[in-house]
Amino acid sequence: MVARTSPRYDAADTDLGALADPARFHESLTLPLEDRGWLTGALRTMMLARACEERIGDMVTSGKIRCPCHLAIGQEAAAVGVARPLRASDRVFGAHRSHAHYIALGGSVRKLMAEVLGRDTGASRGMGGSMHLIDREHGLHGTVPIVGATIPIAVGAALAAKMDGRGDVAVSFFGDGATEEGGFHESMNLAAALKVPVLFVAENNMFSSHLHISLRQPHASVARYAVAHDVPAWRVDGNDVVAVAAAACEAVARMRVEPGPAFIEAVTYRWRGHVGARDDEDVGVSRGGDLPAWRQRDPVRRLFEALVAVGDADTGLLGRLEAELKAEVEAAWAQAQGDPFPAPDALLARVYGGAR
Amino acid sequence: MAVRSYGVAIRDGFEHLMTEHREVFTIGQGLWSPWYVGSTMTDLEKQFGKARVIDTPVSELATTGAALGAALCGYRPIVIHPRVDFMLLAVDQIVTQAAKWRYMFGGDVNVPLTVRAIINRGGEQGAQHSQSLHAWFAHIPGLRVVMPATARDARDLLIASALCDDPVLYIDDRWLYGVEEEIGSPVELDLRLEGPRLVREGAELTLVGAGHSAWLCTEAARSLAENGVSCDVIDVRVLNPFDARLIVDSVRRTGRLLAVDGDWTTCGFAGEVIASVVEALPPGALRASPRRLTLPEAPAPTSAPLERSYYTNVADVVTAARQLVGVPGDSWE
């Protein structure tokens, strides 16, 4: 566990302040003194998620991938940080932008590539594509693109965990747009009323599709909703994997012992458009000039530099990892391209369980 | 064998499930109230505890989603909507999540969720307390839709729904809660094998309905028989996946079809019954044009005289049947 107490969210602070300023937090991370052995692995996992998504983005551009793909490049720290205290018997749910969640929990690259190609060997046997990923072996119980839809489902998974009584928890990943759905508020209230162990993780990248949060909500910080529902909340730099993990570890450790909901707002930014691979345009709307500054808040580089500074990594590690992971992704992509599509009878045979 | 009302038989179903199957629990609004769900769940929370009989905040969407989440994690929840009208706030979770979950995740994920919705009409309750809308839901691949018409089915189809590994919408009707039947011990049916049932045999006309409409058909057939008109009556029971073969075989013999449905006409279930039969039979197989008896194309009114004319009753079914078989009205007693 990360032995660092993260800053709790202050109810009076309804705006993001410095966290929303792209000129801030470019420096390398502050690492904990103890228990940082996992951080080299975290660096690798973030880089693997990015390598997968860069490959997927290229293949979307080339037309080899046709299903809608929503890339989380730049947001990897939220997924990897939250995964830190999780175990395979926990129940994690995601949304449309969930490749990084899938990788962070240990999902197979080959199955991800096969899924976006619609192959029978994919994570969802070719029936879901990028927006419907599942990997129950590693605790990922489903990602879906209806905004906010998995939030109440995660509450129910937490209810089941509480009934099981083995200390498992549920996690719900969603974006800032989902906090505008009624089901989000119903779910927060229900979780608080039933006292179930669900961790709500809002990845606030300040955009819902093409629309900035300032055009959608009176205040930019969505953690304020947790206060309204009496759910303990943390607000962190979502591009700081150490800070995210610290908050997640603290929240989850308590939930395992004393069931009840918790909330993390991870402030971040997506480097690509809402859907597809482009970074210069988003659903037909040109984004502002903030992206170059946000790229300087790179969760990968900031962790890498911190690891070098404390002597946990040498300066050549980044380049070696990039080459190694690129090769791993290339190999998976090549294999997946040769995989079979679902057989014709899958069209009807997978609707109901067993024979009709 | 014991005489059981439809309402109490539903409670018997819950009792059987919660006694025999630890993974069954129930959640919804009004479960600790003596009147939200009539006689169908009386004192279940005292018998099985409030951890397994969960009353909830006024949040249909979140409650239904939570039941789905528990279903994905080893439980067999039954989520209760004391009125269909209020369940519509949870349609995304039923139609777009639960019904598609298995398919979009590759076919291997079980979704043993039962959504129980209650039709609660009459009593001048009006437009927003009276809907059925079963045809909407029967339209959805992946969602099994069940409507019991008898006390035995009210109990045993509830049990079958909860034990099924697919999401099931089980719709019961408060107008049937007092209908009694002599029934034996609970039976654990395999819902995948259940479908329409021939509940009465005749020669001149096929009457088809589901839920309360099936009861209307049975009552009407009794009256018609006393006046020399014998009817097949088919209780649909399972609306989706819909297996029309029994109905087709019946109409092949009788040549006449009356579909009774307690919902609106356009894109409704009565139209589905007729289309399925007409499509399956050769031209000339019918002795009369099929007919459907449904609600007027208006929301439910509150005013008593309007309400009386709004809902189909046994006499309406008898009259329509008589017209179909061509029995003159003045020969009727």
Core attributes:
heterodimer; A: 356 residues; alpha/beta; six-stranded parallel beta sheet; two-stranded antiparallel ribbon; 12 helices; 8 strands; 10% strand; disordered N terminus; B: 333 residues; seven-stranded mixed beta sheet; five-stranded mixed beta sheet; 14 strands; 37% helix; 18% strand; globular
Write down how many β-strands of chain B occur, each being a DSSP E stretch of 2 or more residues. 14
Determine the fraction of residues in helical runs of chain B and give it as a percent range: 25-40%
Secondary structure tally, helices of chain A = 12
Q: How many helix segments of chain B?
A: 12
Shape type of chain A: globular
Largest sheet of chain B: 7 strands, mixed
Major beta sheet, strand line-up of chain A = 2-1-3-4-8-7
Q: What is the structural class of chain A? A: alpha/beta
Question: What's the overall average pLDDT of chain A, rounded?
Answer: 93
Short description:
Chain A has 356 residues and is an alpha/beta fold.
Explained architecture:
The complex is a heterodimer of chains A (356) and B (333). Chain A has 356 residues and is α/β, with parallel strands linked by helices. Chain A is built from twelve helices and eight strands. Chain A has helices at residues 38-62, 76-83, 99-104, 109-116, 150-164, 182-194, 224-228, 241-257, 291-295, 299-309, 317-337, 346-349, and strands spanning 91-94, 140-143, 170-175, 198-204, 207-208, 211-212, 233-237, 262-267. In chain A, the strands form two sheets. In chain A, strands 2-1-3-4-8-7 form a six-stranded parallel β-sheet, sandwiched between helices. In chain A, a hairpin with a 2-residue loop joins β5 and β6. In chain A, α1 (38-62) crosses α11 and α2 packs parallel to α8. Chain A is globular and about 55 Å long. The N and C termini of chain A lie far apart (48 Å). With 333 residues, chain B is α/β, with parallel strands linked by helices. In chain B, β10, α8 (212-226) and β11 form a beta-alpha-beta unit. The longest helix of chain B is centred in the N-terminal third of the chain and has 15 residues, at 6-20. In chain B, 55% of the residues are buried. Chain B has helices at 6-20, 44-48, 60-71, 84-87, 91-104, 134-138, 151-163, 212-226, 245-254, 269-280, 304-310, 314-325, and strands spanning 2-5, 24-28, 53-55, 76-81, 114-119, 144-146, 168-173, 180-183, 197-200, 205-209, 231-235, 238-240, 257-260, 291-293. Helices cover 37% and strands 18% of the residues of chain B. Chain B is globular. The chains are: A alpha/beta (356), B alpha/beta (333). Chains A and B meet through α5 and α6 of A and α3 and α5 of B.
